[in-house]
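Archive entry: two folds, one per protein. Generate the first.
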Amino acid sequence: MTPIVLHVGVLALQGAFVEHVELLRQAVAQMRSDSGASGDIDILEVRTAEELHGCDALIIPGGESTTVSLVAERSNLLEPLRHFVKILRKPTWGTCAGLILLAESANRIKKGGQELIGGLDVRVNRNYFGRQTESFEADLNLPFLTEEPCSDHEPFRGIFIRAPVVEKILPPAHGEQKEEAVRDETVIAPAKDPTHGQGSWPVEVMATLPGRTRRLVEKPDAAGLDQETGDIIAVRQRNVFGTSFHPELTSDARIHIWWLRKVFDACS
């Protein structure tokens, strides 16, 4: 049987796309040394709709979500991205700014201030952890990494830079999350086609960061928090995956390897 060849794109409009490409290459090298690897991976930078069309999966890197949205719109790439994620439902992973763009709802944004791609039925709280000077690192326990046969189960060092958080898990919806649209300083992703929502696939919480919300909810009005949810920093809904933090800014390829294995599963 001919080995599977996957074409994995990294959106290269702005942000840490070079770092993602490098860590993907590291992940591919590690997978090739693993007897369980069953195909090859072609990694490409994506700047046009034509390049996106050739991809089986896509990473949307961290950076400035407003800038990425604006450049994508001016490059006539915004609608193809929505089609890729919401209609074709190809595997897509967004980190930090990428998570914001993949959310169906994002707050702390003025109406019309930013376009969203959508694909994850969540509301994200933009810049939840504060300004650049309040960036931090933390050891994360990521249960999904224990699925990897070669995982050493060591904590993953998460890097949070002006990071968002998933403030609320929304019910799966066909079309727009209309109830979110009436909230102040909240934008929602448009429906590419009302018949092609995420359907009955719920959002899975893949990782949380304990402790920080408890301190912030002392001033819940300022933070705009859903106190019942806590600090959700990784979610998945069918083939769409999002993380608040920046795995690409580390030398640890475990999440990239895990995600690539999921891409192989989805494309098999």
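Generate the second and append.
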Amino acid sequence: MEKYSKYRDPGTGIAPFFPIPPAPAGYYVPVYLLLVAIRIPLLVAVGLTYFVIIQWLPVGSLGRKTALWTLLGIPGIWWVDLQVDGVKRGNLSKASNQLPGPGSIIVSSSTSPLDALYLAAIFDPVFTRCYTFSRRLQTVSLLSAMFQAVSPASLLGAPTASDANSNSDLLSIPQLVKRNPTRVIVVFAESTTTNGRGIMPLSPCLASTPESVPIFPTSLRYSPADVTTPVPGWRATWRFFWNLCSVPTHTIRVRVAEPLRNAPPALNGAAKATATEPNSYATNFFDRFQRETKAAADETTAGRNVMAGSREESADEQPLNAEERKPLDRIGESLARLGRVKRVALNVRDKADFVRLWRKRGRA
């Protein structure tokens, strides 16, 4: 295990990329085999029926949600423990403003293909794919959002050329909200999956969220926890289906935080201009003319520098400043509190290195 020690967070010792092993089957192996033999064919049949036929029919939101809850019920997901910050149990119907609604954003933890399936069954949202080093994100279908949890494509830190040229354009959060004013938007801001034991750094795409748009940090945890898919690949996919269908029942623990909003940018420029404006009694016309001429020259030089810099680094890939990081830190802290875990410094590049080593040793 010494080779994997560098893939533990140096501050907390948490290893968010290690697959969680299932509990020993013992004498229940025949029962598990029977459950898998019954459930997987049903799951495939209902899944194909939904994704090939039902989702394209005008059956309405209720019809789609019924089919999705059937998909959740087949492998034994019959109990969901839902709690919302500031709302007592049994009073959810009286606190609709504390739940995500049209025009809001759900920032969800990302651990399993079940994340997207459950959120689709509840909110019928617009799913997105975000990147660790890009301020833009991409709209995807439910199936793509589920597949992303087991796909090696989740190890990409920035959009590829094919993503930029695909039918689904790369958009900013304000553009996405404007295009979908009546839908909930789901952002898996960690950009890739973990085993649920830590919260990775969040995508910078959230920094551009308008102040008027509420952000709901949402944590999903599973019991047993072996249905998480921190390592992508076909072996991980098969292991996920086995762990999902062999156990009699599963429980989803859902926690929704109070809505957060990005603070408006501070008017530092105006304040600084007011503070440094000299007294009119201490200056004359020629002093003012000299200042204005110098300011115009500085603006011209800055404009040229920006044009030159844009050739080397696009605006959406520039690092966040201190002010832009503050809302991401608040969202990350909320996700960690809801999931009863800690934030880690490891990012998608560390996970890509971990997966390469994991596969090299024949484990994935």
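Annotation attached to the second fold: The two ends are 16 Å apart (CA to CA). The first strand starts at residue 77 and ends at 84.
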